[in-house]
Design brief:
The protein is mainly alpha-helical. It has 19 helices and no strands.
């Protein structure tokens, strides 16, 4: 029997980053710079631009290198406002991915303020998207939605043609959570059309993964399976090795949705081991969550064990949205009603967070 979305997948896999959770960049071309060439560069402007390009790679496969990159940039003897802004941006992305949201948001806002003062629409589009990612991971979906929409508005005037749809897939994820399924469908269709037009296959793979999430949210398992297959197919068109685990997760989901449970379990376990090595908290959460869903019908004790790991990780990292999903899993799927009070308290905490950030949304 195929089980519901909440029992297996909180989200089909995305590359946060960012997004993915989260999509953070559409520029998935070959990087012509190396860390050595960046480190040896003497011109501060070129050095900052090299750091920016390297960070787009590191955020998707080597998060810890972001911190090294930012710290090396700060050592530049010819520091200026642009160099400081790029350093803040890179370090802010690192802090958010590692779970230090408060510091990460402060750094990202500093970078955003520079982009705004210079009217650099390309950087500003990306900064707004990254702030959306930060609030998404924190669990403040209202503020995340605001920043994603702002990113899209600015992207309309950006010289980079991909900026016009950069945040669209992230916005679709918000709308799925808000049960605005028609809006999410339209956003994903537009995103896939534009990403395909620009031959951004990693972006296409991400979007089909979110489409599978949309199908699962509506209990349409056959369609979810089809979208997982499309995501896996698109991922094969990218040469990026770091996208391997994302593609592998989608392959595991295809096995699961095809009732080929043994193959699915082998892949889910491998993915958890590899995610622990990768050491990005929200991706480890996803790997635990998939295993909790896998065992929900066959072994309640093991399912509860994996959901405990989800809950502990989310609490430790301050991932309020993920913490809520873990609690809801325990209530809805494992029938552990003693978690109802914890759910009510957490929902109140999230509402307070959204209300506290309303002033920030109103300012822009």
């Amino acid at each position: 029997m195929l089980i519901k979305r909440s029992s297996l997948v909180k989200k089909v896999v995305l590359a946060l980053s960012c997004f993915v959770i989260l999509c953070n960049s559409i520029s998935f071309g070959h990087n012509k710079f190396t860390f050595s060439s960046f480190k040896n560069e003497k011109n501060h402007l070129r050095k900052a631009k090299m750091a920016l390009e390297l960070s787009a790679e590191y955020v998707r496969y080597n998060i810890d290198s972001l911190k090294i990159l930012a710290e090396e940039l700060k050592k530049s003897s010819n520091k200026n406002a642009f160099t400081r802004a790029i350093s803040c941006r890179i370090l802010g992305i690192y802090e958010v991915r590692k779970g230090d949201f408060n510091n990460g948001v402060v750094l990202l806002k500093a970078a955003k303020n520079y982009s705004l003062s210079m009217q650099d629409l390309e950087l500003l589009t990306s900064d707004m998207n990254e702030l959306g990612n930060a609030y998404f991971l924190k669990g403040d979906f209202k503020t995340a939605e605001f920043y994603y929409k702002t990113s899209l508005d600015i992207g309309e005037d950006s010289p980079n043609e991909t900026d016009v749809f950069l945040a669209l897939v992230n916005l679709a994820r918000i709308h799925i959570l808000q049960k605005k399924y028609s809006e999410a469908k339209q956003e994903l269709e537009k995103y896939i059309f534009l990403a395909t037009k620009n031959e951004k296959w990693e972006a296409v793979a991400n979007a089909y993964a979110v489409f599978a999430d949309l199908a699962l949210a509506q209990d349409n398992y056959e369609l979810a399976k089809l979208y997982c297959e499309k995501s896996f197919s698109a991922s094969n068109k990218t040469i990026k090795s770091y996208f391997y685990l994302n593609a592998l997760t989608n392959k595991a989901l295809v096995y699961f949705l095809s009732n080929e449970k043994k193959q699915a379990l082998e892949l889910f376990k491998k993915i958890l081991r590899d995610r622990k090595t990768e050491n990005i908290p929200y991706k480890i959460f996803d790997a635990y969550f998939n295993l909790a869903g896998y065992f929900v019908e066959s072994d309640k004790n093991l399912s509860e064990k994996y959901s405990d790991s989800c809950l502990q990780l989310a609490k430790k990292q301050g991932l309020l949205g993920l913490e809520l999903e873990a609690i809801e899993f325990k209530i809805d799927e494992l029938k552990l009603m003693e978690f109802k009070n914890a759910k009510a308290k957490l929902e109140l905490k999230i509402r307070e967070l959204e209300n506290n950030n309303k002033k920030e949304r109103d300012k822009l």
